[in-house]
Write a structure and sequence with these properties.
Length: 165
């Protein structure tokens, strides 16, 4: 059995996934397309045949994965969520933007950064003032939006190549 950690209201709760649920999650991930989640467009009959299980059994596993927020489902698609990727020990490869801010304009700059569509944003100490984690596909758009903010002195961008661990 595989255990994953779920952070809920200052407590770690262990969730048990069966071998079949993990196999299904891996199949969805490997067959999916990377966006902010992994999306798979497949009919349930085809997926159940690929896994060698009945459609009813597949529905039980899909419901469990959906209830645990490992996947999202809708008509004609299944998304493996970031939580699902984490359960598999995977993560999408983001881009990082290091931002230098003019000291007199920090409050305004941080407020505008809070409004950007980024995965995470941190104030940090050191040679730079902020670190933004963005989807690789949104890097160019995020940089354009950053350039429009008065008080940003410099940015440096880094795109991840692969997840080492």
């Amino acid at each position: 059995m595989n255990f994953t950690k779920n952070y809920l209201k200052d407590e770690w709760i262990l969730e048990t996934l069966t071998k079949r649920s993990m196999q299904l999650l891996r199949t969805l991930y490997e067959s999916g397309k990377s966006t902010s989640s992994y999306t798979l467009s497949i009919k349930q009959d085809e997926l159940s045949k690929r896994l060698g299980i009945s459609r009813q059994a597949l529905n039980v596993h899909l419901r469990k994965l959906r209830d645990l927020n490992y996947i999202r489902t809708g008509r004609g698609f299944i998304d493996v969520t970031e939580k699902g990727l984490n359960a598999l020990g995977l993560s999408s490869n983001p881009a990082f933007i290091l931002v230098q801010v003019s000291p007199a304009k920090r409050i305004n700059v941080y407020e505008k950064i809070r409004q950007l569509a980024v995965q995470r944003a941190f104030r940090i100490a050191g040679d730079v003032d902020a670190l933004l984690v963005v989807d690789r596909e949104k890097l160019d758009d995020t940089l354009k939006r950053l350039y429009a903010i008065d008080g940003i002195r410099d940015t440096r961008s880094y795109v991840t190549i692969e997840n080492i661990r």
